[in-house]
Write a structure and sequence with these properties.
heterodimer, A: mainly beta, seven-stranded mixed sheet, 11 strands, 49% strand, B: mainly beta, five-stranded antiparallel sheet, globular
Chain lengths: 114, 113
């Protein structure tokens, strides 16, 4: 019973490099989201998806791209990494769009940009 | 502008006593409020939620109280146990916003034996 799986768990990049953070869920959830967690700021929404082929921006989308070609996968791409993108990234999924319904989170990817 | 605020970065409570974690919000359009618990190196896990039409929701040792006029909610844990030591996040969403949570900064709860 994997739930939400994020890879890699840790990554160090140099400024200007690109990379993709992977997120996969096996619960057949339509709704998926990406958040970043920074010290003293809680989690902030980067992008979200309400189904395959449908994505939208959250609070802090700049510097990130997403796509949703399948229900299971929701990768997050950093186009040109910057030190300000050093953070812990969490992917989440939910079975319903209705408020109050819980999101299920992966264990995060800790990303450092040098 | 921080729409959801947890003004206490940390809280220390004796085992067996009540833990009270507080959360304030500014956006009156929020319809649902949720509490998540997070251990180090793990993702947040859902604890309990409350709709804006209610003022209390209870689940075992966890009770959430909502005061809409004050735009304030609190999570009560009774009795507190060592395994409750974690970071607790308050989050809010609209009616159809389960995938668009707005989080507070978190409160680190430490339960002392």
């Amino acid at each position: 019973n994997a739930g939400v799986t994020q890879t890699p768990k840790f990554q160090v990049l140099k400024t200007g490099q690109s990379m993709t953070l992977q997120c996969a869920q096996d619960m057949n959830h339509e709704y998926m989201s990406w958040y970043r967690q920074d010290p003293g700021m809680g989690l902030r929404l980067i992008h979200y998806s309400v189904g395959a082929g449908i994505t939208d921006q959250g609070e802090v989308p700049n510097g990130y791209n997403v796509s949703r070609s399948t229900t299971e996968d929701f990768p997050l791409r950093l186009l040109s990494a910057a030190p300000s993108q050093t953070s812990v990234y969490f992917c989440a999924s939910s079975s319903s769009v209705l408020g109050g319904q819980p999101q299920h989170f992966g264990d995060g990817t800790r990303l450092s940009i040098l | 502008d921080q729409q959801v605020k947890q003004n206490s970065p940390s809280l220390s409570v004796q085992e067996g006593r009540i833990s009270i974690l507080n959360c304030d919000y500014t956006n009156s359009m929020f319809d649902y409020f949720l509490w998540y618990k997070k251990y180090p190196a793990e993702g947040p896990t859902f604890l309990i939620s409350i709709s804006s039409i209610k003022d209390k929701n209870e689940d075992g040792r966890f009770t959430v109280f909502l005061n809409k006029s004050a735009k304030h909610l609190s999570l009560h844990i009774v009795p507190s146990q060592p395994g409750d030591s974690a970071v607790y996040f308050c989050a809010a969403s609209g009616i159809q916003g389960a995938q668009k949570l707005v989080f507070g900064q978190g409160t680190r709860l430490t339960i002392n034996p």
